[in-house]
Amino acid sequence: MATADDDGVWLGIDLGTQSVRALAVASGGRVRGQGSAPLTGTRDGKRHEQLPADWWSATVDAVRQAVRGLAAPVDALAVCGTSGTVLLTDAKGEPVSPALMYDDGRAVQESRRAQEAGEELWRELGQRIQPSWALAKLVWLTEDGDSGSGSGPQTGAQAGARVCHQADFVTSRLVGRPVATDSSHALKSGYDTRRRAWPVDVLDALGLGGLTFPDVVLPGNVLGTVGAAAAKETGLSPSTRVIAGMTDGCAAQLGSGAWEVGRWNSVLGTTLVIKGVTAEPLHDPAGVLYNHLSPDSTWLPGGASSAGAGVLTTAFPGADLPALDRAAAAREPAGAITYPLVSRGERFPFLAPDAELFTLGTPADDADRYASLLQGVALVERLCLAYVRQLGARVEGPVAFTGGATRSAYWNQLRADVLGRPATVPEGAGSALGMAVLAARGAGVPRDTLRSMVRVAEEVAPRDAVKERFDGVFVALVDELARRGWLPEETARYAREEG
């Protein structure tokens, strides 16, 4: 077992869209090494593919950078990947289909079929199969469907082809043979997290019975140790344990420190993602929220809104945002209320494909318009947390703020004010850090040491007087969302009572 001294080093590997990042972390959150390598892909309309060989070569480059100069070998590592990215391989782990990325949107018809085939199960689980889900993509890959990509879905239709998620491809290369997947990456391939089994009847009904679905383990389980070939390529020791990881969103939650039941992580980047911890899965009749299993067998419910900081890039390209922050501080609340969608359609906390950005009232000037955008995101964040409470979740303690928007100290304060909750801003949080924490947990490191790996850079206390000024604004936004038919009345009523 690794100890809490300086000899314990754990490696987190994050397979992103544009790069692979590797982070070597010791107890106390001390970064001992880091590395990154770029990734490219092919985008053409709804098509988005990457080459699995590129995932591996970028992983090799990033890991070699991270472990170069370490005083002691890495004790354990874990890998996260993008949720819903999938391909088919042969029995040895070599690709026999294109690798369809998380946002590849070609499986629209297949997602409808997958939803219908497992309607009863998905209703029980509170899920809806979207075109971005790996299950829909697997149907696309195994049928003579739209082959306009030039690689043709029929290439993966051979009997016995193995289902492989992005992280699985890399962990298999590290160990030197195909390994089990984790329940987090398996969820969007149709894995039944409640029964902890693949839904064979549903898969057969979709024509997927000829595929080999991998064994599934909980995140944090040991998959094996680094093989000789991978050790030579990466610079890792053959004794390094490979730990089952999680999707990148769940990994980021681990990096935020939101681990206990009742704790929530709000990730604000281009869009807003809310993830928390519950003792039991949240049942969501609307299917806009889904539940991952945690390493502790608790549940990690979450959802992604289409609102977020991306509206600032569109509305104020190249602007001096710190200066606008200072101006916005005098507009609490602004003279207008904005629903800040980054793109058409809302996914969480309600499903409305036709939803679009709107503004109630007329901003007095650019500062007022900017303030209404910041405040609009905070109001949506408040609505998201109201929705998870409506579904029965506890929301306790500070909310962990992560994502690029945390660079704005003013926005952090405003969000805490509108929520009426304290917040923490972790230092250096991210998916790679989350995987380093999970690697340490899988290696048997005590919880106190795990906790020390996540450092808090800032604590934000809400200002009660400011929250009171936004209570009426929040209700006004809720009323408008309900009037437009986007927000279900039951949710609107619950949110109004909170407001």
TrEMBL record:
Ranges of residues in domain Carbohydrate kinase FGGY C-terminal: 266-442
Q: SUPFAM superfamilies per the record?
A: Actin-like ATPase domain (SSF53067)
Q: Where is the Carbohydrate kinase FGGY N-terminal domain?
A: 9-255
List, in alphabetical order, the GO biological process terms annotated in this UniProt record. Answer: D-xylose metabolic process
State the InterPro entries in the record.
Answer: ATPase_NBD, Carb_kinase_FGGY, FGGY_C, FGGY_Carb_Kinase, FGGY_N
Query: Which keywords does this Swiss-Prot/TrEMBL entry list?
Result: Carbohydrate metabolism, Kinase, Transferase, Xylose metabolism
Q: What is a single molecular function from GO for this protein?
A: kinase activity
Q: Its family?
A: Belongs to the FGGY kinase family.
Cross-referenced PANTHER family: SUGAR KINASE, XYLULOSE KINASE
What protein name is recorded for this chain?
A: Carbohydrate kinase
Annotated source species: Streptomyces montanisoli
Q: What is the lineage of its organism?
A: Bacteria, Bacillati, Actinomycetota, Actinomycetes, Kitasatosporales
